[in-house]
Amino acid sequence: MLRKASLGLIMALAACGSARLIQQTPQGGTLELQGDHGKAMEDANNQMSAQCGPNNFTIMQQGEEPVGTDTYVQQNDQTTDHTSRSGRTTTTDNQTNTVQSTRTATVWRVHYQCNGAMPAAAPMQPPPGGQPPAGPPQGPPQGPPPGPAPGGY
Q1: How far is CA 63 from CA 18, 30, 57, 110, 142, in A?
Q2: Cα–Cα distances in Å, from 45 out to 19, 33, 62, 83, 90?
Q3: CB 31 within 8 A of CB 110
Q4: What would the pLDDT profile of 76-112 be if each residue is shown by its tens digit?
Q5: Which of the pair, 74 or 138, is modelled with greater confidence?
Q6: Which phi and psi angles does 106 have, rounded to 5°?
């Protein structure tokens, strides 16, 4: 029974996946996928839709990106005893083998952009015909003129 429960837990963990927010701007962002790729991408799509609106985003780039290095060290110690034929003396040989490997650690990241992202606000242009845009009356400011700037700064 315990074996079946353990197997079920392992299968459940293997099916998990999520998208972790790395960076976000008003125009888009970057998500890192973790665990099962399909489930993680589903979570990423939900997060992108929450920010940009349903189906209102474009994946600009996705793939493995280097994030550092991993170093693996394995050490094997071996001890051998040798006894003389007479049984009077014993010698011990110790041997240590160490293997080290380093690799570039990578993660899967998705870079996206919201569709229809507005560029920086452009100055207002008068409509054709030379008429000023509709709005509050344009004229000199009302009220007393501003006083001198405070000193000491």
Answers
A1: 16, 11, 17, 7, 59
A2: 9, 11, 13, 69, 69
A3: yes
A4: 888 888 887 887 888 888 888 888 999 999 999 999 9
A5: 74
A6: -130, 155
